Amino acid sequence: MTALPVSPWRVSMTTIRAVKAETPGVTTYDLSFDDPAAGYSFLPGQFNMLYLPGIGESAISMSSDAAEPGKLRHTVRAVGNVTRAMERLLTGDKIGVRGPFGTSWPVEQSRGNDVIVAAGGLGLAPLRPAIYHLIRHRSSYGRVTVLYGARSPADLLYTDEYEAWHSAGLDVQVTVDVGSADWQGSIGFVTTLLSRVPLEPTRTDVFTCGPEVMMRFIASGAVNRGIAAGRVFVSLERNMNCAVGLCGHCQFGSEFVCKDGPVFPFDRVRRLMHVENI
Amino acid sequence: MTDPIVGARIWLPEAALQGLIDQLRASGYEVVGPRVADGAVTLVEVTSISEMPRGVRDEQEPGKYRLTVIEGAGLFDHVVGPHSLKPYLFPPRTTVLEVLKIRDSWDARVPEPPRPKRAVIGVRSCDLHALAIQDRVFLGGQHRDPEYAARREGLFLIAVNCSRSAPTCFCVSMNTGPKVDGGADLVLTELNTGFVVEVGTEKGGEVLRGLDIRESTLAEFAEATEVPQRAASQQTRRINLATVHDTLINNLEHPRWEDVAKRCLSCANCTMVCPTCFCSTVNEVTDLAGDVTTRERVWESCFNEEHSWTGSGAAHPTTKSRYRQWLTHKLATWVDQFGSSGCVGCGRCITWCPVGIDITEEVAAIEAKGGVA
Ligand SMILES: Cc1cc2nc3c(=O)[nH]c(=O)nc-3n(C[C@H](O)[C@H](O)[C@H](O)COP(=O)(O)OP(=O)(O)OC[C@H]3O[C@@H](n4cnc5c(N)ncnc54)[C@H](O)[C@@H]3O)c2cc1C
Ligand code: SF4
Ligand code: SF4
After folding, report:
1. Less CB within 10 Å around the terminal CB: N or C of chain A?
2. What is the pLDDT averaged over residues A215-241?
3. Cα(B276) to centroid of ligand 2, in Å?
4. Same domain, A17 and A86
5. In ligand 3, which atom is closest to the CA atom of B356?
6. At residue B370, does pLDDT exceed 70?
7. CA distance B260 to chain A (A)
8. What distance in Å separates the CA atoms of residue B177 and residue B128, rounded to the nearest whole number?
9. Between chains, do A6 and B146 touch, taking CB under 8 Å as contact?
């Protein structure tokens, strides 16, 4: 009898080291693997399946620095079964992890180029590892711009880090759809920020994550400004169950979002992103 | 003594088929074959040829299936029923993880999959092609399914060349039958008093040894050659395999999707009977005390809303979007993903659709009035 393939359902145990309330309904969890020999590493843009026994699994992107894989961090919005149950967890509680899965932001391929990171809402979470990478290797990149939009000032993620990103040499521009009494910043959509930012299309790569409509506008906006569609990268969300291309849930045309994505060059998915309910 | 080497053509008298079953059982195989249950020819355990559907024919039409008995007809005069090999390799329910709660932590382990030895008698060409397709899905990629691998390893396949086609069959146009073209340990063609057996593998030849066999005559072989040709000539349904990929992909907004959505019940029957559909979902099942959780993988269907749920709603919220997902996956995007069509032309989805939606007719309608994408 030949050896059987390793089960994709094997799960590693982690312990919650810290819990941080970010914005209403959004929490960041710091996790550490119980088995120090877990040998875990990931690339910016990849995701894990987080597991709560008796409740289920959710696909959640890594939001921490990939250079420090031992300090795993996830930012989660409570929307359903698993993510609401997660909201009740405390430091010391356990979360199962399968991963890492999926494709990543092409940070290596972008060396030498200008990079625009365009995020909407929770879409900043999977982009944060890319931002950390760009900062760590700041001299390897040209102009780096972070464009971030959220519904309201209260919905902005990671506000205590913008200053550090700016000091590290990133142009950080933030906008909200609806301001508040003490909001002095820009009001409007992140797509508007993109239309104003100075850029050289032949040396600029765009990484975008957020609601699908927003990514469509960002990607089309970038293309309209002369950036080739193959230099624009979007991160798609679909239902995930196995995360390894065996369960069928995440199909998007001929792509399995879990293994062919979630990060795709826009030219590969552009046509389907314009078909409703595909 | 006749030597049943690979490629040999052997004559097996009908009574000796029992010997074949006995031989397989003696070597530790569970033998599965056609058997009538609940008004259909199913694929379940058989121990004796007397349990098999002698003279039974299946009348199949869109949304209709009925059995009749014909005097003097053979053991394999039926074609494919609602069952296929799929449940034997990709079970409708299986445990992928067992989690035990231990004080404030828990212990998760992957159960060792069973490694059954199973022989299936009466497998048709379309189902062998469906098996090859599922092999690519479950074993062909970077992540391979251990349960499927375990069950696949112990499978012994005795195929049968179809002697007739149902009106719902269209394997000829899919290049998947009715003549078996590989993938089986033994291939039977039923004649009046016995079978011409082609030996496909050494394992296949091995079980024939010691049975009442001889080399088949040229006349028997010539007669056997005509059997699947007769079945092929009866087929009327077809899909244009060369053009269907582009036809569908270029017509994602065709009005026919709305039209079929008015008829389709989103019941998922088509995906359950399809021998290649592979979607699944893992559910949590917890005991009453809450100390033991098993993660159970069950068959899922793209016709269910929860199949495509995300935090911002279902990706396929309407029957139109679900039927389009199903048809374009089967006949177009499957080719991009796995290098072959996801449809083998078995016609099961046509027969078992409660409202008789016909995959070939839907494609033809889109092809005839090729709208713009
Ligand atoms: C690659 C990838 C990366 C991701 N990264 C992150 C991340 O970093 N952070 C994050 O917060 N999220 C992320 N997500 C989204 C996250 O996976 C989902 O929000 C999460 O899986 C929801 O799981 P749940 O069990 O909490 O919700 P579920 O219970 O599965 O519910 C999810 C949604 O399904 C629908 N639904 C559920 N039950 C019903 C019902 N009975 N009837 C109708 N509709 C229903 C609702 O719309 C609900 O909002 C990511 C997704 C992907 C694919
Ligand atoms: S799509 Fe229909 S005809 Fe094709 S393999 Fe599946 S059940 Fe058979
Ligand atoms: S096509 Fe027929 S069998 Fe398939 S979901 Fe629709 S009604 Fe059910």
Report:
1. N
2. 97
3. 7
4. yes
5. 2
6. no
7. 16
8. 9
9. yes
Which residues fall within 8 angstroms of residue B102, CB to CB, at 6 or more apart?
none
Does residue A4 belong to any structural domain of this protein?
Answer: no
Measured in residues, chain A has a length of 278
Q: What is the rounded average pLDDT for all residues in chain A?
A: 96
B314 CA distance to ligand 3 middle (Å): 19
Last residue of a domain, one of A42, A76, A100: A100
- Local structure of residue B331 (DSSP, 8 states): I
Give the CATH number, domain containing residue A265: 3.40.50.80
Let me know if residue A2 belongs to a domain: no
Pairwise CA distance, residues B162 & B60, whole Å: 15
Encode B255-276: b = buried (16+ Cβ within 10 Å), e = exposed: ebbeebbeebebebbbbbbbbb
Predicted complex ipTM: 0.94
Residue B373 has pLDDT above 50, yes or no: no
Contact residues, chain B, for A277 at CB < 8 Å: 315-318, 320-321
Give me the domain span that covers residue A33: 12-100
* Model confidence pLDDT, tens digit, residues B290-341: 889 999 999 999 999 999 998 888 999 999 999 999 999 999 999 999 999 9
E strand or H helix at B8: none
* pLDDT class of B288 with cuts at 50, 70, 90: confident
What's the average model confidence in pLDDT over A134-148? Answer: 98
DSSP 3-state of B171 = helix
> Which numbered ligand comes closest to the C-alpha of B63?
3
Substitution candidate for ligand 2 out of B124, B335, B348 with most atoms within 8 A of CB: B348
Element (H, E) at B156: strand B155-160
Q: Show the 3-state SS of chain A.
A: CCCCCCCCCCCEEEEEEEEEEEECCEEEEEEEECCHHHCCCCCCCCEEEEEECCCEEEEEEECCCCCCCCCEEEEEECCCHHHHHHHCCCCCCEEEEEEEECCCCCCCCCCCCEEEEEEEHHHHHHHHHHHHHHHHCHHHCCCEEEEEEECCHHHCCCHHHHHHHHHCCCEEEEEECCCCCCCCCEECCHHHHHHHCCCCHHHEEEEEECCHHHHHHHHHHHHHCCCCHHHEEEECCCCCCCCCCCCCCCEECCEECCCCCCEEEHHHHHHHHCCCCC
AA identity, residue B97: L
A37 touches chain B (CB under 8 A): no
Cβ neighbors of A104 (< 8 A, separation 6 or more) are A43, A44, A45, A46, A263
Are the C-beta atoms of B257 and A275 separated by less than 8 Å?
A: no
Tell me: do A191 and A62 sit in the same domain.
Answer: no
Edge to edge, what strands does the sheet with B93-102 contain? B105-109, B93-102, B292-299, B280-286
Express as a percent the part of chain B with pLDDT over 70.
Answer: 99
